[in-house]
């Protein structure tokens, strides 16, 4: 319980930064006096400012702390990832995808604004994320190039979108490596980018970047394993669940291994890592 309470306090503190910056991003939109544009902005705002854990941008801020980097430097990156994440949720909820009526206790975007406007809201968020990165790091062209490459790789055919495609297509029973690959792409790619992008911004040395790569990859997959353990139904197992293909005992052992890898990798960082450690341990705490 101490880990959970500490993390809740940490997230509550960091989320204030995120909410403020997201509001500034929305306020920067061009003033186009047209009902269609106003509805688009309303649709984007409805989903982007609907709350949620803000896990990815907060993870970016905690990484900045561990690298002794001013958090303001990492904030645009983390918030751009939150825009990508929000766009993916809007599109996932559409009738031709998951066909969900509610998200975070509220009607989904397409239920309020219609399918066409929800689609455009997702398109706008995806594109605006790249605009915000370009604007925020324009004075550092080498860094901007590296961040743009990472963002496109994590969000597109080499990351999240590829994982979503693997998830929606009918496929034969996957083995553990296939399920792991799916989740590393669909969920893990943006989590990894939340950490590794900050390492680029901080101009971290190669050993630090490698340590954070290990941490972020293990953390992202650990969250998925913990989710699968909590959701596992022995009578109706999910076809793309790690627990479904590995079994409960093996999945718990795998989770412990992932958490251990995360914790060991943090020992190489120069700044305070308490919050990152608690985030890794949280995955064990919530499945006890």
Task: Tell me what you see in this structure.
The protein has helices at 2-27, 35-48, 55-66, 71-93, 109-113, 115-136, 141-155, 160-168, 176-201, 206-231, 242-246, 248-266, 274-285, and strands at 102-103, 106-107. Helix 2 (35-48) crosses helix 6 and helix 8 runs antiparallel to helix 9 (176-201). By secondary structure, the protein is an all-alpha fold. The protein has a single domain (2-285), classed as Farnesyl Diphosphate Synthase, CATH 1.10.600. It has a two-stranded antiparallel sheet.
Protein topology:
Layout: H1 2-27, H2 35-48, H3 55-66, H4 71-93, E1 102-103, E2 106-107, H5 109-113, H6 115-136, H7 141-155, H8 160-168, H9 176-201, H10 206-231, H11 242-246, H12 248-266, H13 274-285
Helix pairs in contact: 1-3, 1-4, 1-13, 2-6, 3-4, 3-9, 4-6, 4-9, 7-9, 8-9, 9-10, 10-12, 10-13, 12-13
